[in-house]
Structure formats: structure tokens, C-alpha cells
Amino acid sequence: MPYAVPFMMLGAVLFGIGLVGFLTRRNLIIMFLCTEVMFQGVLLNLIAMGLRHGNLQGQGFGLFVLVVAAVEAGLGLAIVVLLYRRRGTLDAESWRTMRG
Amino acid sequence: MTSGGWVYVTYTVAALGALALYLALPRGRASHRTAGFVFGVASMAGLLTVLRYGLGDPAASNLYFLILSFLTVGGAVRVVTHPKPVYSALYFVMVVLATAALAVLAGAEFLAAALVIVYAGAILVTYVFVIMLAQQSESAAGALTYDTTAREPGWSVVAGFVLVATLAGVILERPWPAAEGEAGVAASNALSIGREVLTRYAVSLELAGVLLLVAMIGALAIARKPVPTDEVPPPDETAPPGETGRRVRPF
Question: In whole angstroms, what is the distance from residue B122 CA to residue B134 CA?
Fold first, then answer.
């Protein structure tokens, strides 16, 4: 099972970077891009687990994760466009009234 | 070096990387780009060293693997830290392509092709399109303030460091014994994965198709709806006359 453990490590690093970006950036679109970076980390992890067990279940599950990522991007960006048309800005801080 | 020693090396590298990320995050005029770059180079070298020597995997000495790891992590850092959204999206293309190449290295050719087609082809086009559609013109001082000022960079970096250090510690501490069960990946990856998806996961495949359809209809329903802007609020009898904008009543 070459590459399995290095891929897990890379996946962890990608997930961490994406998390930091999601927490710090204020642009709604960039926040979504950071979730996609986290998805890349998850995909690497799935490939690694498939390698470790020597079967194709990891890759098959990765394909379904890809479908969910596409769905998430489509719906999320539709909502972003909606929010932009409402406020005229992509700043996440302009929706801080939802904080209560 | 023992595995216990590598754990502490990895923690140090993660701390260095967190510091680099903290310094490199856009923070208006008070950015520390150069210091962030220096720490970033140091932590990247540390990460590649850990990947190469610390995980006990002889395959990780492959030069392509190290280069692709560098491109993936470096691109991800630039996605997070670049103050201009279009450049973030382009760096994300780099991350996707490098990840796809890594998948090819691991023998997952079909997943790599799907990554390039779906992510770099479809999702990224949607992102760039929305950025073009919704991006405001830049002010005279340069980029927009909400792109150039990070929100709570310190605590976020601490959270990211804790997460990565925990995951790396678990990965390094566990023995990861050799693979059991089915032998190796089949000769033709696309053929075997197609067989897998269409037999064992046939129901899931149909569900994925339904999910895509539902999402498409949902996105259309969301995007078509006319939206009142907050600057010109819709007439509302219950609102006091002078109040306009900036406050949204629930329902």
C-alpha cells in the first residue's frame, strides 16, 4: 500500500488549511472555495483508505463525494448570488444580524 | 529517528505552518507578507521532510509525489491567503490539478479524470462566473476591505493547528498494518470502478442522480426569485415609517 499514509497526512494538512480559510475570510465566495479545499483533503483521505485496504470502495465513495461537492457548489453559489442581490456586497459581516 | 521523535517534529512543523498562515493572511496595511513567506518556506520544507522520511513509506521518496505535495499545499495556502477572489479561484484550479495527479500516482485514474472534469471543468467555471457576476469594483485604495482584512486570524489559526496536530499525531502513532482482504487494485481502473459502481452501488448511483436533479431545480428556484434589495425595502405596514434597510425581520 504505497502512498496511503502520506496521502492521509496531506489530506489532514489540506483540511486544516481549508478550515482556517473558512474561519478567517469574509468574502462569501472565498468561504465556499475554502470548503472545496477541505473536500480535496477528504478525497485524498478516501483514496488513501482505498489504497490501505486494497479495494475500490474508497474511490467509489470518492465519486459520490464528488457528486455532493458539485451539488453543494451549485446550491451554495445560488444562495450567494441571492444574498449579493439583497445586500449588494459579498461581505459575510453584512449578515451579522443573523447572529441574534 | 523513532516514530515518537517524528511526532514532535510534525507538531513543530504544524506550529510553524500555523504561524506562517497567521502572518500571511491578508490584514490590510499591517500585513506581514515577507515574514509569512519565510515561515511558509520553512514549514513547507519541514512538511516535505516529514512526508519523505517520517512516515516510513518508501514510495514517498518519489520526486513527483514531493513536487505534487508542494503544489497542492502551496496552492491551498494561496487560495486561503490571496486577497483577490479571482486569483484564489485560479490557485484552487492548481490544487485540483495537483490532487488529480496525486490520484493518478496512487492508481486512481478514473477519479483523477472525474476530478479534472467536474472540479476544474464545471465547479470552477461556476465559481469564476459568480465572482465575475458579484464582485464589486475595487475602491480607489485597492482591493475591497472585506477581502483584505481577515476575521479573527489568531483563533482560527489556533483551531487549525489543533486540528492538524491531532490528526497528524493519530496518523503517526497508529501502526497502519499492511493491507488485508482483496488483492491490489485491478489492472484497468476505469473498468473495475465502473463495475463496482454499477453493481454494488447501483442504488447509490441512482440516488446521486436524483440528488443532482433536485439540486438543479432548487438552484433554479432560488436564483429566479426576485429579491427585494435592502436599500429599497418592500412596503410593510408594521414597520415604523422612518426605518429603512440594514435590519431584516424574521419571516
Answer: 18
